[in-house]
Amino acid sequence: MGVSFWPSLELIAYARLARGILYTFDFETLKCNFKIDGIISDDYIKRIKDKISTCKIPAFETILTRFALEPINITNQQIYLPLPKKIQEKLVRIVLALVTEVKLWFDCHTDTNLYKLNFDVWNTLSWLSSGIIDRLETARILIRDENVDVGERFYFACKYYFEEDAHALWKKYPETKDILEFMCIWTDSARYWKNALMGGTALNWEQISLSNKTFFIRNLMGIRCCFTRLQGLEIKFECIESGLISGWMHHCDLYYCLSQMNVDELRFVFRRLSQYQLCKMFKCFRLWPFQLMFLDILNSFKTYITDDILHDLISFLKKKEKEPHQDYAYADILRLLESTDFTVC
Questions:
Q1: CB contact set of 266 (below 8 Å; sequence gap of 6+)
Q2: Nearest alpha-carbon partner for 285 in 297, 271, 299
Q3: What span, in angstroms and rounded, lies between the C-alpha atoms of 98 and 133?
Q4: What is the pLDDT of residues 52-83, one digit of tens each?
């Protein structure tokens, strides 16, 4: 793709600390503090700020003798100081980004009983070092947790294309037959699973690749497993387009798909996308943790950025800048965008 995401050690450290702060709250507290529109409640944000304000770091006080440049401890009692204000503010934003990430994970599985399942959410979620939920590994953990309802385990095995696990559950639990029949009503992919499971064979990716974009409706969760197996550029385009239209493709999955394509393939996709879809795609890169590469993305694909798209992106960033609780310092992006004198081709 020309632009690669490599999280810095600083970002990894912030993400790890933010996750530790998030995990001091039980999941039920988090779940009860989302408003109907998905916005985090002011009370919960205040609790996050209060928690971060109690974090302290050791301060090492030393003096230098006149004759040697060796530190001398002036007290035996360790002194601790609160985190600098700027670090506190940044941590609040990152914790909020992680909270949103958890909410997104639950939202994309609305056709399951995840909220009602009796499982340890914090110990089940697997995280990448960049502060994003590793959805494939999390699905694997759920699938292999025998305390979780077999229907949910089978659902995750199919949705994330864990073929070996799906076959194992199919053979072991007779009730999976009824579950699959129910899935066939709601999703296109289930009929391919039905052929594979009943025949004891692997999924037929050649046949799947002949599908159209309707195949990806409600089937975008395991896109990392299936994207490189799709045969043909047209079906890969429809996968990306479907994700942008529906809004259900996670921004990290979108980045993964784009990163698997060469220059000619990217050109094919970008020329086919509408202005609205292109704008949605660029907006995905203002989400945690991609904000630092936002301008690099714009510069790499400026050939496809019209005046209307640029105006829309700037308006969007200015709107985000005015929000009381931001997941990133959007003023920094706007400042950089203006200072680089970005112009469309």
A1: 1, 258
A2: 297
A3: 9
A4: 999 888 765 444 344 344 454 545 566 888 88
What are phi and psi for residue 58, nearest 5 degrees? -70, 140
Query: What does pTM read for this prediction?
Result: 0.86
Q: What is the mean pLDDT of residues 147-162?
A: 92
Most confident of 79-88, 131-140, 288-297: 131-140
In angstroms, the CA 249 to CA 239 distance is 9
Angstrom distances, CA of residue 29 to CA of 37, 40, 55: 17, 11, 21
Q: Taken in order 250, 251, 256, 257, is the CA torsion positive or negative? A: positive
Nearest CA among 16, 2, 83 for reference residue 289? 16
Q: CA-CA distance, 301 to 338, in Å (whole number)?
A: 17
Which secondary structure element, helix H or strand E, spans residue 260, and what is its range? none
Q: What is the DSSP string of 64-122?
A: E-SS---EEES-SSPEEEEPPHHHHHHHHHHHHHHHHHHHHHHHTTTTS-GGGS-S-HH
Query: What's the one-letter identity of residue 91?
Result: L
